[in-house]
Amino acid sequence: MTFNGTWKVDRNENYDKFMEKMDINVMKRKLAEHDNLKITIEQTGDKFHIKESSTFRTKDIDFTLGVLFDYSLADGTEVSGTWEMEGDVLKGKFTRKDNNKVLTTTRAVVGGELVQSYNYEGVDAKRIFKKQ
Ligand SMILES: CCCCCCCCCCCCCC(=O)O
């Protein structure tokens, strides 16, 4: 499976502006830019198990493609949404519970790196991970 393995964040693009749009305060944004996020992805068919670890927390997440689930962002913001697979790209659509606004995200392996893209209210960002 394309995504399986452990991926460590290597660099961010426009992540501060994205988090600012998300209304995350400057102190949390500075910490989040350097959170050493590591995600381990285990896909079995349409089921995923994700182990997330960062300077903020460690967390296990289970989801099935196309099935709604709840997730808390590292700053505590609660969202609910789904991941779908389109070709080799994972596409996520999550709605914030506090304001009903939508955050979209994709994951794709590009040139051996895991690229996670985000969009919120017109602001795009990327986090790019290297395989461990
Ligand atoms: C705190 C800054 C905002 C970060 C945005 C993260 C968006 C995450 C979308 C949902 C992820 C679900 C769990 C997962 O697949 O890892």
Structure description:
The protein contains two helices and ten strands. By secondary structure, it is mainly beta. The chain has a ten-stranded antiparallel β-sheet with strand order 4-3-2-1-10-9-8-7-6-5. Helix 1 packs antiparallel against helix 2 (26-33). The protein is globular. The two termini are 16 Å apart. The mean pLDDT is 97. It binds myristic acid. Belongs to the calycin superfamily. Fatty-acid binding protein (FABP) family. Cytosolic CRABPs may regulate the access of retinoic acid to the nuclear retinoic acid receptors.
Spell out the blueprint of helices and strands.
Blueprint: E1 5-13, H1 15-21, H2 26-33, E2 38-44, E3 47-53, E4 58-64, E5 69-72, E6 78-86, E7 89-96, E8 102-110, E9 113-120, E10 123-131
Antiparallel strand pairs: 1-2, 1-10, 2-3, 3-4, 5-6, 6-7, 7-8, 8-9, 9-10
Helix pairs in contact: 1-2
The structure holds myristic acid (MYR).
